């Protein structure tokens, strides 16, 4: 395998990391019947919060990720209050949250535009990282990349192998039945939405402190929307979401290696590739309505008042 192809595959894994964090968080929220279109805004607020904290206090990446997760959780709390406590429209509130996140991140970030952070070096695991081909692709990343993989394993296990996963699915399928059985549906949905916000915030903080360790206005650049699309692409299954994240990560990283591969394609078209791929995938999936209905949480987007 050529050095260029190895670099593309390694870059794909890194580029997919924020999508994995945000997508898994949104998947858990949607499993309970709540669709949050504010992922983009939560990621942006997490990105600026993590970056500002790291730049202001010379903090570690781990601390910046924690602050980003807290910021994303607070954004999700706003969304949860309006949609769950006040029973307002979930789609409208999600869009408003994204607009709010774009605005407040730009306002806070105007003092950090010229700053850069040291970033985070990859972990060279002895022996394993020196394996030809596989070593550079899989075993020379920073610990946050491996943390996203661990998050996938934990969430997959919880959703498919535990009673909690069955409960989340039950709330998403029939909140009335879950309520009749004595479960606090609103509390469960609150926790799921807040978890989704924390994951989105961590994904945003990863972008600003590790992947591109500098602050650029609107640097999430649509990844929040791609994460939402990934949940539909995955038909609400974590394994498919993981594969989809790497697919979109590959499409994203391809634009940086196009010239080296000899592709004579305008830069504007290459920059649009991830979003074009998102539209194409959603169109293809929407054609199989029967498959979508079999996996779609029955109460998705519907308000519930006990």
Automatic annotation (TrEMBL):
Q: Which compartments does it reside in?
A: Cell inner membrane
Topology term for the membrane? Multi-pass membrane protein
Q: Which residues cross the membrane?
A: 6-25, 37-55, 61-82, 94-113, 143-159, 187-207, 219-236, 243-263, 269-286
Where does it mainly reside?
Answer: membrane
Q: Which InterPro entries match?
A: ABC_transp_permease (IPR001851)
Q: Which residues form a coiled coil?
A: none
Cite a single GO MF annotation.
transmembrane transporter activity
Q: Which Pfam families match?
A: BPD_transp_2
Keywords per UniProt = Cell membrane, Membrane, Transmembrane, Transmembrane helix
For this record, an example GO cellular component is: plasma membrane
PANTHER family reported for this sequence: ABC TRANSPORTER PERMEASE PROTEIN, SUGAR ABC TRANSPORTER INTEGRAL MEMBRANE PROTEIN-RELATED
This chain belongs to the protein called ABC transporter permease
Biological source species: Acinetobacter gandensis
Taxonomy, top ranks, is: Bacteria, Pseudomonadati, Pseudomonadota, Gammaproteobacteria, Moraxellales
């Amino acid at each position: 395998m050529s050095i260029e192809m190895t670099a593309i595959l390694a870059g794909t894994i890194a580029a997919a990391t924020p999508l994995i964090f945000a997508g898994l968080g949104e998947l858990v929220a949607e499993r309970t019947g709540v669709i949050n279109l504010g992922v983009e805004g939560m990621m942006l607020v997490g990105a600026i919060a993590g970056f500002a904290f790291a730049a202001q206090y010379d903090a570690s990446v781990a601390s910046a990720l924690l602050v980003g997760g807290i910021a994303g959780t607070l954004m999700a709390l706003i969304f949860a209050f309006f949609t769950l406590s006040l029973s307002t429209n979930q789609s409208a509130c999600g869009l408003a949250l994204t607009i709010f996140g774009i605005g407040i991140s730009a306002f806070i970030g105007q003092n950090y535009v010229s700053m850069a952070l040291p970033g985070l070096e990859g972990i060279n695991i002895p022996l394993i990282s020196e394996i030809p081909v596989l070593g550079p692709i899989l075993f020379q990343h920073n610990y946050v990349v491996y943390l996203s993989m661990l998050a996938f394993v934990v969430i997959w296990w919880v959703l498919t192998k535990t009673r909690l996963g069955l409960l989340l699915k039950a709330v998403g399928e029939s909140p009335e039945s879950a309520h009749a059985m004595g479960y606090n549906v609103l509390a469960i949905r609150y926790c799921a939405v807040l978890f989704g916000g924390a994951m989105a915030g961590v994904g945003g903080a990863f972008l600003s402190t590790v992947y591109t360790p500098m602050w650029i206005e609107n640097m999430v650049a649509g990844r929040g929307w791609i994460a939402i699309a990934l949940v539909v692409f995955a038909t609400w299954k974590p394994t498919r979401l993981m594969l989809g994240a790497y697919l979109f990560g590959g499409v994203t990283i391809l634009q940086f290696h196009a010239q080296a591969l000899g592709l004579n394609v305008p830069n504007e078209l290459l920059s649009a590739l991830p979003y074009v791929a998102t539209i194409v995938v959603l169109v293809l999936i929407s054609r199989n309505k029967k498959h979508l209905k079999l996996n779609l949480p029955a109460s998705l987007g519907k308000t519930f008042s006990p």
